[in-house]
Design a protein that fits this description.
It is a single chain. By secondary structure, this protein is α+β, with helices and mostly antiparallel strands. The protein contains 32 helices and 27 strands. Strands 5, 6, 7, 14, 15, 16, 17, 20 and 23 form a nine-stranded mixed β-sheet that branches. This is Transcription factor domain-containing protein. One of its GO terms (cellular component) is nucleus. It holds the Pfam family DAO.
């Protein structure tokens, strides 16, 4: 951001926020103005109070200040081309029960207005407009105020048009949900953090967040420790109900030209109510008399009124009492003539209130840089055209003394009892007990009837009740209108009410879901059941059917129904648990839901489903070897389920925290030539029967092999987690975690049958059709290969030891370890790219986020070597880095988790380049800047998605939400990396196009055997020695962290002769040990 330009971050795109953005960009065209809202500005539905079919535009205030402001805004509505198309001057008909009419008339005269405004006796007023209001309630009325200068506006269309114009003028619109405010060490507000973890910053942060304001301030106060942020009794979130009735053609003709009507009850202790002329869709609107708060405990001991936590504020869920209130207010206007009107819509509108109904347009006294422009108190829309003008005056400290006092954050406020428009009840009190208990009664009935899990077969033939939402297709956004009628209930997917835990499955959809499961999920990674076990769709338990569809709908046109299927499955699973009827399909359902959550990036929900399923396994003693001693028809299915859960735990389970399981607890065991006592010491459940790809009965199947390598991978993840918390023993020590993991890796590798190794299966020679037919084998084989190369890549990742050296004085990394570990990381990261090339070439569809994670890890290694001095390695690393990114992006359509991972990698890449504009394909810098927090995020796969309001979305109440620190992307959290001299590369296509790096040191002899593998052969072909590459270090290099921790990269290669001869096999002089024909034998005969 250009620091010379003022920057404004406006949170909330209702009338306060949009008006502020519009006026700011007009007054300061060069300013940075960002408008953030949870909804797109042209969304079909929004939660902003100003998003509505229509809103009143009037200047009939008995308060002089607001009368003056409303007249100013009304003039803009009438005369400004931007606003004029949305204003309808129908006039106002106000039934007054006090001196209200005379006060309004006096204010207009004082302001020199000559509007057509008059107070009429009731008998005369009743005859106006062809007697439309003859049956209205006139009890206690003194007179009727008629102001023909007022009217109404198409609120949604107007809000959308002004937002579009603001964007056209230069405002940046960001669709994101705000989780909390951000503050620096001095307590100054610096911006916001979104629910996806993104930080948006500006000099001025303006909250125009309406009903969400008190909750946002409460959460931000708890997170920052700034208790004075809280709104306290300054702001109250409240709702009111609006209703619409559809008129027939004849009635529409009568009411089409009616004025806006008001029933004023000033002095009678009741809020005024009103009715607005019908839209072109013949829908007549009015609002109720009940204004209510929704007070909940959002943090321990902290109660705040806020809209319901649903994404749409539950604005369409209107209780019976509120609907009855709408009917009562309708009768106060239209009497018996409205008895047969068809009610079409009910909506709850939420806004922020003050006890005086004054706005708050003010700096926040608790934090510099934080401002508020909110609290419309249900009368803010009519000021839309001018609100931003006064917000700017507030920012510039030029508000008139009166407005500054009335709109101040800290001011003396009147008792709310003096304001009849102030909320008068709680939402919970307006929901009948029978409505609150309805869902519980249904579930109780299900339990009493034997678990409430209806057989799927019994539902066959029933019509499908769920409809996919349909939306208007438009080609020109400017022609789309939202004010007239938002999506009707019949065209929207309603919230489940009656029989909400019963879903009807179309047989074709079920067949598609099963096929998709076996195409994308079976044995990749989970292996719960075989095809014959789920072949009869009608006999599947409903929770299993729902879980299958919840997982596979992302791969089909049923994607919009994922949440429905998931919710249904969760409800039925909990009923099984509550009723004590859990069986193997219940745990399988949890396994599928867990994997679906991990794909979606909802890690906490996925871990909950996984933890619950593991606990159920423990209750069923499926984690005990002895349970499997007696073989029955479900024994192997139980084994597959247990180890499928272990695979998910290995890739996605938590590695930190006291309750995390030690990795050795669930270590699988492959056949070994070791002693019998060694094998007997392991009491883990046996692996399932798996003979795919084996050449003899005693060999282990490929899926079981991937489980065992996955266990080593889980140890690597634990090692990274420890490193991130500075728990790192010198890796070259024999008792280090590094040495233990490396030993386990070698032991597991040694037990892998030859029939599954790279050179044996020759994946790169297989035909595409052959791979498709035998996908059950090749999908887990690819998982095994990617895991095999990911383990040493991460274990030897240069980043771990560069960062570790900063915190551990004992990590003065020896040259030998650094050289070998760096080369291992680069070698296996290069092999990961080789595997990616083959997967792409063979058109193998993969969806497991694990593959995307491995690609991201390899990308970080190649990013590190993008600044190598050796031109060939720099070019090679740049190319491989781009391949990894493209491969990761291919997972985004099906995996929001990979989408979040891609965004983190993109952010880290831009930080590394030091610029926002970067062509990765041509980027080969001399140095890079590695973001430490983002690197940890990528290595640990801590990415979460932007569909979550909080890190535990769909699981925990806000009171249990853990505080997640923001990702620090400041200069203090980056490392400057300069790799002056690095291994060169060569290309060897003898084994299918593998590109491998070369050594930086000279070779003086050949080694004829490989101690790690007896099948390796020697190579004695002669070639010309490659000239060593040596660049003397500069002062800048000497000052860099990399130079001081990687001296071997800068040393004269001649000084390193012999260092590498201790264990690595040699090729011809001048060539690295992995060059020539030995490369094929050494690497791939091992695996």
């Amino acid at each position: 951001m250009d620091q010379s330009k003022p920057s404004y971050l406006i949170v909330g795109a209702g009338v306060f926020g949009v008006s502020t953005a519009y006026h700011l960009i007009k007054k300061y065209p060069d300013a940075s103005v960002t408008l953030v809202d949870k909804d797109a500005f042209d969304a079909d539905e929004r939660v902003a109070a100003s998003w509505d079919w229509n809103k009143v535009v009037r200047a009939d205030y008995d308060d002089f200040t607001y009368c003056q402001l409303a007249l100013e805004a009304q003039d803009t509505f009438k005369n400004d081309p931007l606003w004029q198309p949305y204003f309808h001057q129908t006039g106002v008909y106000w039934i007054c029960r006090s001196d209200y009419a005379q006060n309004v008339i006096d204010h207009h005269k004082k302001l020199g207005r000559k509007d057509d405004i008059i107070a009429l006796p009731i008998s005369e007023a009743r005859k106006l407009y062809n007697g439309l209001f003859e049956d209205a309630d006139y009890s206690g009325a003194k007179e009727v105020l008629v102001n023909r200068a007022s009217g109404w506006a198409a609120a949604g269309d107007c809000l959308r048009a002004v937002t579009r114009e603001s964007i056209k003028l230069g405002v940046k619109y960001v669709t994101a949900e705000t989780a909390s405010l951000e503050f620096d060490q001095r307590g100054n507000c610096t911006g916001i953090k979104t629910t996806t973890g993104e930080i948006l910053t500006a000099e001025h942060t303006i909250l125009s967040t309406g009903a969400y304001t008190p909750k946002l301030l409460e959460l931000s106060a708890a997170k920052s420790g700034l208790s004075n942020l809280r709104a306290g009794d300054r702001i109250l979130a409240a709702g009111i109900t609006t209703g619409m009735a559809e008129l027939d053609e004849e009635e529409y003709k009568k009411y089409a030209d009616m004025p806006v009507g008001f029933q004023g009850y000033t002095g009678h202790g009741k809020p005024f109510i009103g009715s607005i002329p019908p839209t072109k869709d013949r829908e007549l609107k009015w609002w109720g008399s009940k204004i209510f708060s929704n007070t909940k405990e959002i943090l321990p001991g902290r109660h705040v009124s806020a809209p319901p936590p649903a994404t749409d504020y539950s604005q369409w869920k209107v209780s019976r009492q509120l609907k009855e209130d709408i009917i009562e207010q309708r009768n106060l206007w239209y009497g018996k003539k409205s008895a047969n009107w068809k009610m079409t819509k009910h909506r709850i509108c939420w806004d922020a209130f003050t006890t005086s109904s004054d706005f708050i347009i003010s700096p926040h006294s608790a934090a510099k840089g934080l401002y508020l422009a909110t609290c419309g108190s249900f009368h803010g829309f009519k000021f839309f055209p001018v609100l931003g003008k006064y917000v700017i005056q507030m920012l510039e400290d030029s508000l008139s003394p009166e407005l500054k006092t009335r709109w101040a954050w800290d001011r003396e406020r009147p008792d709310h009892l003096q304001n009849p428009e102030y909320p008068n009840s709680e939402l919970t009190d307006l929901v009948d007990p029978d409505e609150r208990l309805q869902t519980l009664e249904e579930k109780l009935d299900l339990l009493l009837s034997g678990g409430g899990l209806p057989n799927h077969h019994a539902r066959q033939g029933q019509p499908q009740t769920q409809q996919q939402a349909t939306f208007e297709e438009v080609t020109d956004a400017s022609e789309k209108s939202f004010s007239a009628t938002p999506p009707s209930r019949r065209n929207r997917q309603d919230y489940p009410t009656d029989n909400s835990n019963s879903v009807v499955f179309d047989p074709d959809d079920m067949a598609t879901g099963i096929n998709l499961y076996f195409k994308y999920c079976h044995r990749q990674p989970i292996w719960c059941f075989e095809r014959d076990e789920v072949g009869d769709y009608d006999s599947l338990p409903e929770e299993l059917a729902s879980s299958i569809l919840a997982l596979t709908s992302r791969f089909s046109e049923q994607r919009d129904h994922m949440q429905l299927f998931s919710s249904n499955a969760k409800t039925l699973i909990m009923l099984r648990i509550a009723n004590g009827t859990v069986d193997i399909t219940t745990i399988e359902s949890l396994c599928l839901l867990s994997y679906a959550s991990f794909i979606d990036g909802n890690v906490h929900l996925g871990q909950f489903h996984l933890g619950l399923s593991l606990q159920l396994c423990r209750s069923a003693m499926l984690d005990m070897e002895s349970v499997y001693a007696v073989d029955d028809s479900t024994t192997d299915r139980k084994k597959r389920l247990f180890w499928s859960l272990q695979l998910l735990e290995q890739s996605y389970g938590r590695q930190d925290g006291l309750l995390s399981f030690p990795n050795d607890v669930r270590r699988p065991t492959l056949p070994s030539s070791g002693s019998q006592s060694e094998q007997d010491s392991c009491k883990a459940p046996p692996l399932p029967r798996d003979d795919l790809g084996t050449s003899s009965p005693g060999e282990t199947g490929i899926w079981n092999t991937s489980v065992c390598l996955g266990w080593v991978w889980s140890q690597v993840r634990k090692y990274v987690s420890d490193c991130s918390r500075n728990i790192l023993k010198e890796p070259w020590r024999h008792d280090s975690t590094y040495a233990k993991v490396l030993s386990d890796f070698m032991e597991t590798e040694n037990r892998i049958p030859m029939c599954h190794r790279y050179d044996s299966v020759k994946f790169y020679e297989r035909k595409i059709d052959e791979l498709k037919v035998n996908r059950d084998y090749w999908a887990p084989w690819l998982k095994e290969q990617f895991t095999y190369h990911a383990i040493p890549t991460v274990l030897n990742h240069p980043f771990l030891y560069i960062v570790g050296a900063q915190h551990n004085p004992n990590l003065g990394i020896p040259n030998t370890f650094w050289r070998r570990s760096s080369e291992q990381a680069l070698l296996h990261a290069t092999w990961i790219v080789r595997m990616i090339d083959m997967v792409v070439d063979k058109q193998v569809p993969l969806v497991d986020p694990f593959f995307g994670h491995v690609a991201a890890i390899a990308a970080t290694v190649h990013l590190y070597y993008c600044c190598a001095a050796a031109a060939r390695l720099k070019h090679k690393s740049n190319t491989d880095f781009a391949k990894c990114r493209r491969f990761l992006k291919s997972f985004i359509p099906c995996s929001a988790a990979c989408g979040a991972l891609d965004r983190n990698l993109d952010r880290m890449t831009r930080i590394a380049a030091g610029t926002e504009n970067m062509d990765v394909e041509d980027w080969m810098p001399s140095k890079i800047y590695l973001s430490v927090p983002l690197m940890w995020e990528i290595l640990q796969f801590n990415s979460t998605t932007d569909c979550q309001e909080i890190p535990t979305a769909g699981l925990l109440d806000a009171s249990l939400t853990p505080a997640v620190p923001p990702v620090d992307t400041s200069d203090s959290s980056t490392l400057e990396i300069i790799v002056a001299t690095s291994p060169e590369i060569t290309i060897n296509i003898a084994d299918g196009g593998q590109e491998a790096p070369t050594s930086t040191y000279k070779r003086t002899q050949n080694v004829s055997s490989n101690p790690a593998n007896s099948t390796a052969t020697s190579s004695s072909s002669s070639s010309t020695s490659r000239a060593a590459v040596f660049d003397p270090p500069t002062v800048e290099q000497i000052d860099s962290l990399t130079f001081n921790t990687t001296p071997w990269l800068y040393a004269d290669p001649s000084q390193l002769v012999g260092i590498g001869d201790m264990s690595y096999p040699q090729s011809e002089p001048g060539n690295a040990w992995w060059e020539g024909e030995n490369f094929n034998n050494i690497i791939f005969n091992q695996f």
